[in-house]
């Protein structure tokens, strides 16, 4: 079971899940935050959502949050490669995360083995598909869970490479650089994912809330105007800016007219 106090479904999961149901948004997210060559070798046409759901009974029937199957097309002397990305969404620290990720990976491989011909699986050159585990964390407290699986094993320092091990990628929303988050938001918006507007705004607010609202907390009118200006430049709609800054719609329209022409 998850660590005490960690609910099986995090409160902000739905917004992120809805956002990442868009293959385009998911791909832009990977390109923004995963510094790996393979990220740039895939496109939307080779990104799939498996129909299978991966559920762990030991975790109160918790289902894997986001699973994508990806295909890197054959290039030069490199063969086509099928692999998976497993992403878990967390708003609290789960100290059992490496164990959970291991179980999800085993479930994905188990499903692959069930759907492959026996003769092919018995071949000497048969290989399981790689799985890239990622944790997207939007909690305010630092992420203090083990980052590798072997760190969960008692006395692991006594052993060498014979122990099972993997390391998951951690994306900590609240500790991202402001520019990085803004670039992601702009990239997704520029790609035309208009139906994701609300969720993009939510992620922006989660990641930059303490930075964009410093002026508001000080109660300065100029601080509110500065925030409104930033949000207008990001292309946010006026009702959202009214709610965020508490400025009147007329004032925001006036600020908009003062902005330099794009």
UniProtKB/TrEMBL annotation:
**Superkingdom of the organism of origin:** Bacteria
Q: Name one Pfam family in it.
A: Transposase_31
InterPro entries xrefs: Rpn/YhgA-like_nuclease (IPR051699), Transposase_31 (IPR006842)
Ranges for domain Transposase (putative) YhgA-like come to: 10-185
An example Gene Ontology biological process: DNA recombination
**What GO molecular function annotations does the UniProt record carry, in alphabetical order?**
double-stranded DNA endonuclease activity
Q: What's the protein name?
A: Transposase (putative) YhgA-like domain-containing protein
């Amino acid at each position: 079971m998850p660590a005490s106090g960690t609910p099986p479904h995090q409160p902000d999961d739905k917004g992120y899940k809805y956002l990442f149901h868009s293959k385009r948004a998911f791909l832009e997210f990977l390109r923004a935050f995963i510094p790996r060559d393979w990220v740039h070798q895939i496109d939307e046409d080779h990104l799939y959502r498996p129909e299978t759901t991966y559920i762990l009974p030991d975790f109160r029937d918790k289902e894997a949050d986001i699973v994508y199957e990806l295909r890197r097309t054959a290039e030069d002397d490199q063969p086509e490669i099928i692999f998976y990305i497993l992403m878990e969404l967390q708003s609290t620290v789960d100290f059992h995360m490496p164990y959970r990720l291991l179980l999800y990976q085993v479930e994905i491989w188990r499903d692959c083995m069930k759907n492959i011909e026996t003769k092919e699986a018995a071949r000497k050159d048969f290989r399981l598909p790689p799985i890239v585990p990622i944790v997207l964390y939007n909690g305010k407290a630092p992420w203090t869970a083990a980052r590798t699986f072997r760190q969960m094993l008692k006395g692991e320092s006594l052993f060498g490479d014979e122990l099972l091990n993997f390391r998951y990628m951690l994306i900590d929303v609240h500790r991202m650089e402001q520019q990085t988050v803004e670039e992601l938001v702009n990239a997704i918006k520029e790609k035309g994912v208009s139906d994701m507007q609300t969720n993009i705004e939510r992620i922006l607010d989660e990641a930059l809330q303490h930075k964009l609202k410093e002026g508001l907390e000080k109660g300065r009118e100029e601080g509110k105007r500065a925030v409104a200006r930033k949000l207008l430049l990001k292309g946010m709609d006026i009702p959202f800016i009214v709610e965020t800054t508490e400025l009147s719609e007329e004032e925001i329209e006036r600020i908009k007219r003062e902005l330099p022409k794009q």
